[in-house]
Each structure stands twice: as structure tokens, then as C-alpha cells.
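Note to self: keep these together.
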Amino acid sequence: MDFAVGLARCPGTCGEWVQGARKGVPFLVDCPIDRFSEARVELNKHTTGWDLPLRKTKALQVLKLIEEELGVSKLGGTVEFLQQLPEGKGMASSTADITAVAAATLIALGVEPTPERLADFALRIEPSDSVMFPGITEIEHVQRHYHRVLGPSVPALFLALDWGGTIDTRVFNARPGLAEHYRRNEDEIRRAYSLAREGIEQTDLEKLAYAGTISARCNLEMNPKSWFEPFLTWVRQKGGLGVVTAHSGTLLAGVFPQDSFTSQDEEKNLRLEAQQRFTPAYLDLFHSHSGGIVATKLELTENAG
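Structure:
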């Protein structure tokens, strides 16, 4: 075939349920949501260059890694993003972009885009989330020694707020003092991790939200969020169970049971009150997601391309 097209979609995250270190080794437990990066990759055997948005430098990096790993000497084509995530907020936008592009490219080449292979590509580029795996996954996101799927996602609703600015994942993970911060908080992170495991195994959102709140509070030392305590108090007053945060991003979200609001008016009123009270630059409602990628292949003839 002169052309082959791969389509792939990867979810983003509402930060992380837990992030810290175990015996000095950083790890995180992801929080996948129903927001996505979706990429369409059209391979063209007549070209060796890539046409893709200029700012998507990490997508270009993963394309080069694929060329090297598969030993493909002539690979090129077009990359189009059909859906994108806000960047620099802690929603795993870079990981989702890398994963979607890699999965779309691999499936267009006839190679199975396994979560393990996609995670390896992402982690070779930068510290990464684990949204390519189904369910909620623990991963050593810096040293990339292992990953562990902890169980299916727990149904939840997230009211996410952001007050502007961006944080670069690589810069955050290279910050002086981060290792010492993790060391000081290992006991609290161990407690949060234990609660998170119980919450996932028991489908107990209250335990999972409590774990998220512990980890989010620990993170304030390295990534302050001035509205944290007032927002947490308000979330609980509104029937929420706690908060989850982007540990290397700007997002902070209230965690609510999935069936908290029985009408669109109730959700609208919650949004309006949050906007008026906390004046965020960005506000949205997410639902938890099952995690993992969806990828399909479409073969085209030259005339149809």
C-alpha cells in the first residue's frame, strides 16, 4: 500500500491520586479521565519527512524512536491531532500526545501497540503518566523500573480548577530539593498509597479521595496552590469526598461521587458557584475513565489518499 492510516486515542488525567517516592524511588498512581488526545497518522511511502504541528516536538521524538527501534529507513507522512488536552496543567497532555501518535503509527505499520511498548517510548522521552494502561496504574515514572495495574477505575466526578500558568514535567522532576521532599513525606505517601489500594480494590471512592487529599497536601510544599484549603472545605460542604491534584501541574479538583448531581441545573450551579468563589482561569467537570488506548488501522490506495 502507498498509504496507511492509523487512528489512536489516549485519555488524559486529572492529576494523580498519589505521587511521591518509595525508598527514594519516585512513583505515581494515575487518575484517568474522559478527556483525550487523539491522533491520525498517515504514512506515505513516497516521503521521509513528517508534517505535524511545530509545537508537537515530543510527538516528533517518538516518531524518531519508532524509526530506530523498528529499523525503518524510510518513514514519513502526516500527523494530525483530532483532539487535544490543555498543556502544562497536569492532565498528562504530553504522555497522551506521545502515546496517541506512537499507537497510531505502530498500528499503521501493522505492529501491535501494546501498553508496555507505548510506556517504554513515553518514558524514554520524559517522566510520564501511565494512561496507556487500562484501569488505574502505578508506575515508576522517572526511573521506569516497573508498572503495576492496580485495578479498574472507580466511578467518580471531578470538578477541576486551574488558576493559570504552566509547569514543565521535566523541569519539575529535575528540581533541587524534590528528592528530599519525597524523603520527608514517605510515611504520608505510604499511608495514601495504602488507602488508594484499598479504595481501588473495594471500589470505595471515599478512601481513594482521602488518599488523593493526603498526597495533594504533601505536594503543596513543592507546588503551592493558594486556594487549596478553602477549596477543600467548600468541596466537602458540597458533598465532595476530597481532592486530587496535578503534582507537577497547576490543576486542583474536587472529587465527587459520580451520581452527586441528578440534573444539569445542579451541575451548572456548582460550576457557577465555584467560578464566583475561586475565580479560576479554567474550570471543567470530568468523569473517571477506564484508561488505555483505542487504536484502529485504515489502509488507503494512492488514488484514495
